[in-house]
Amino acid sequence: MNNDWYLDEDFWATFGSLMFNEETFAQGNDQALALLDLMDSQPDHILDLGSGPGRHALPLAAQGYPVTAVDTSAELLRELEQRRGQLPIEIVQADMREFVREQAFDLVVVMWTSFGYFADEADHARVLDNIRASLKPGGRLVLDLVGLEYLCRNLQPVHLTEYDDGRILVERPELTDELTRLDNDWYLIEGDQVHRTRFSHRVWSAGEIRALLANAGFTPISLYGGYDGDDYDFDSERLIVVAGEGG
Ligand SMILES: C[S@@+](CC[C@H](N)C(=O)[O-])C[C@H]1O[C@@H](n2cnc3c(N)ncnc32)[C@H](O)[C@@H]1O
User: Fold this and answer.
1) The domain 5-147+204-244 belongs to what CATH superfamily?
2) Ligand 1 within 6 A of CB of 53
3) For residue range 85-134, what is the model confidence (pLDDT) as tens digits?
4) Distance 80 CA to ligand 1 centre (A)
């Protein structure tokens, strides 16, 4: 398995169209608006880390909030640039392990499991340190994750999706490393062609992610089971973390 899969432009070029399409952009729009409601927030400046082509940066900017969108993928950022129009979005190509802008943002969002990719645990702590340093006093971080509790109860060893355009995706996910990582084995069937990729990311239980954030100095920390602020439980498809900068 390639440990740096998340930096591989071929991965996003081949599998990106499954993730970024008009349907998922519409979902991103709803999620962004729900999050603003959940936090009752009027942020001055938002940082979207691992923004991709802007599923959340675009609707947040359309609400009038200046957004800085940071991502490593030149291709995905090009798509954001094309969609941006006159919206107040600053586009930065950078790695979240390196990107820091001292006390510049009052809201940082890391959406759709974009936190947790690194093989080295220290890199996750480093990203949290960067985020805390980039938050203004009293600012907040939102992490949109999949929780270990949901995976333990609901993960199917094989899952098949058939798309309207005829493509078929076969996923073979597996919890590994004492249930701390999700290894994925994907086969995308396109006519006679099969593209295969294997990639892995960290998964946390609710208690583990709370402890990780507390160790990084974040407080207060709230956990939700959805963008609307539902309670988190075994059947929550998302684990939404809202964490204060902690003073
Ligand atoms: C699953 S996509 C999610 C994109 C976006 N947050 C959304 O919800 O649509 C993960 C994104 O993280 C970006 N990414 C991966 N590793 C990164 C890193 N080390 N620093 C910054 N961005 C990264 C990828 O290029 C990709 O755009």
Assistant:
1) Vaccinia Virus protein VP39 (3.40.50.150)
2) no
3) 999 999 999 999 999 999 999 999 999 999 999 999 999 999 999 999 99
4) 12
